[in-house]
């Protein structure tokens, strides 16, 4: 059992293992724990740093520089340059998410089976439910308690009540949450049950080795069989891990990027990229909100989920919230001085639009553009957000749509959002939750991995992250990712 | 190697965008901008550099014949408001707003209790 820091590796290291797991997020951590528990020698290789809970910065700049890929500012290329938000650290994006937990919706599983009937037996609903129960129990998933929700969440509930929209406290993977409001920076108390808290310590205790600050740059393979990975340590050294089995769990961007960088371009690798784009709106309340306090994301409006819209309270660090209030000069100064009265709520869109992950000049890039349907959903989502704010008592809202007024204050002004600009670049969106770039399926022309998570063309190579999902889920995916990763580990042990 | 705005142009833009509110002190500010330069991806650094160059130098020169740093606070505000109203410059104003809020504002001061 060991944890090794790649910043201290300067020479050449060679390790031998039964299995190499690339990535330590929700998929990699679960697979590593399951396989280590079964007695296999596991090495987990993680590009980002290990961060102790107490070292999580409170400020936006510090947290984003430390824990986010590209400081949270990497973008997809397309008609609108939208930020694509990913973690880059031990625990992956789950270490800096809002702790929102959703089970895989039954209708999403039904869609997958409709696309490929082989998944009915290979990924049966009953097994998914069973492992999801286990994951949720392990993570302590429970609804946000009202005493730690804080005003921003309770106000969203008030607005939804007034509009008659179904809503509920968000079910979160926390134990002993004190409502510190710092999920997005990394919980400073270790209350969030993200992978570096929930699964990796157990994996290490059962003999796994974690190499952090070590970036896998290529898969070693020959004659249709994987042989291990080659990696580069942050300290300048090189690391080779030889293993007969490799599990890719590096995300729906980095996993296909690594396959392509390794010359493994069989099947639709990198294609069918899907995501959940979202837009947000800030609103000013007469009462003090202090949106950086209370559960980071503690309430959601689910009444329009079937339309592909899910609304959430957001709990940004103060510096990020400041960028969401309107104006320049004295107007911005006044709003910033008044920041404790502002809240920011967002809407996540279940987009059907597909993009692609490519390798360009040695770098992994994502191309994706919102479709006309997506833009229509942005408009509709912003309109509903405005209605929620006004119904909750907000005096005015800031929609951040190019060509529209900086603030809106009346129901008529908010209703006009539905007729907002049709060009995607007019909206300030962001992308989270990435899927589909190594999709699972029985047809090797249409899928990268088999229904049992094995690569169609390379023996010993498995993929466990959300790149195998045949579509997006429309809901926050960390629990689904952990459930499928558990099943992936089972299939590996049974193989 | 990536473009870096001069501190005087940068600080003038910061003061113009968020005049006197919850800004980091000089040393902390300099360190924060160094942290930003070290961590931000190239496209964001280029965007910030372009925003400072256009909004701090080119646009105010075109409007008033003087750089932003040499204008009165009221005139700076007019310059920025006019830029924000132009589709071609509004995106740069937004880049500047985001960078300034993230880097130049002091989170502790923002979170501090107010009466």
Terminal Cα separation of chain A, in Å?
25 Å
Number of domains of chain B: 1
The multimeric state of the shown protein is heterodimer
Based on secondary structure, the structural category of chain B is: mainly alpha
Give a count of the beta strands of chain A, DSSP E runs of length 2 or more: 23
The percentage of residues in β strands of chain B lies in: under 5%
Radius of gyration of chain B: 14 Å
Helix content of chain B: over 70%
Gap from first CA to last CA of chain B: 46 Å
Biggest β-sheet of chain A: count, sense, barrel? Answer: 7 strands, antiparallel
Question: How would you describe this protein?
Answer:
- The complex is a heterodimer of chains A (495) and B (115).
- By secondary structure, chain A is an alpha/beta fold.
- In chain A, 29% of the residues lie in helices and 23% in strands.
- Chain A has helices spanning 26-37, 60-67, 106-115, 119-122, 125-139, 146-149, 151-163, 195-198, 200-205, 254-261, 318-324, 330-337, 372-392, 411-415, 478-494, and strands at residues 2-5, 12-16, 19-22, 42-45, 75-76, 82-83, 141-143, 167-169, 171-173, 209-212, 214-222, 225-233, 238-242, 245-248, 274-284, 299-301, 309-314, 342-349, 356-360, 363-367, 396-398, 429-435, 461-463.
- In chain A, the strands form 6 sheets. In chain A, strands 8, 15, 16, 17, 18, 21 and 22 form a 7-stranded antiparallel β-sheet that branches. A 6-stranded parallel β-sheet of chain A has the order 1-10-4-3-14-23, covered by helices on one side. Chain A has a 4-stranded mixed β-sheet with strand order 2-13-12-11.
- In chain A, strand 12 (225-233) and strand 13 (238-242) form a beta hairpin.
- In chain A, helix 5 (125-139) packs across helix 15 (478-494).
- The longest helix of chain A is centred in the last third of the chain and has 21 residues, at 372-392.
- The radius of gyration of chain A is 22 Å and the shape is globular.
- The two termini of chain A are 25 Å apart.
- The mean pLDDT of chain A is 97.
- Chain B is mostly helical and 115 residues long.
- Chain B has one domain (7-113).
- In chain B, helix 1 packs across helix 3 and helix 3 crosses helix 4 (73-84).
- Chain B is globular.
- In chain B, 43% of the residues are buried.
- The mean pLDDT of chain B is 90.
- Classes of the chains: A alpha/beta (495), B mainly alpha (115).
- Chain A binds chain B through residues 58-62, 64-65, 70-71, 73-75, 290, 292, 317-323, 328-330, 332-333, 336-337, 339-340, 402-403, 428, and chain B through 16-22, 32, 35-36, 38-41, 43-44, 76-77, 80-81, 84, 87, 90-91, 93-94, 97-98, 101-103, 105, 107-108, 110-111, 114.
